[in-house]
């Protein structure tokens, strides 16, 4: 089963990767830019597997660049908050 099949597993996967990046010294701005790139890739190449991903994909597809950065930053905040 892919981590994309279940939104909870996806958030846990992101949380683990975020924690690793921070532990390795990656700056918040780099994390934000990477999250935006990943969001763009997922929106363009991966079919949403659950309702949460569908909402995110729909939001991403109507967002301008500034809004896409905001969505990516909110996902980073969400997984940071959930990991506490």
Automatic annotation (TrEMBL):
<dbReference type="InterPro" id="IPR024702">
    <property type="entry name" value="Uncharacterised_YmfJ"/>
</dbReference>
<dbReference type="InterPro" id="IPR038292">
    <property type="entry name" value="YmfJ/YflH_sf"/>
</dbReference>
<dbReference type="Pfam" id="PF11588">
    <property type="entry name" value="DUF3243"/>
</dbReference>
<protein>
    <recommendedName>
        <fullName>DUF3243 domain-containing protein</fullName>
    </recommendedName>
</protein>
<dbReference type="InterPro" id="IPR021637">
    <property type="entry name" value="DUF3243"/>
</dbReference>
């Amino acid at each position: 089963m892919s981590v994309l099949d279940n939104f909870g597993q996806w958030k846990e996967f992101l949380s683990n990767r975020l924690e690793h990046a921070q532990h390795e010294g990656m700056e918040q701005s780099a994390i934000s830019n990477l999250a935006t790139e990943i969001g763009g890739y997922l929106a363009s190449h991966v079919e949403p597997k659950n309702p949460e991903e569908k909402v995110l994909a729909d939001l991403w597809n109507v967002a301008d660049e500034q809004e896409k950065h905001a969505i990516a930053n909110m996902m980073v905040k969400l997984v940071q908050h959930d990991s506490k």
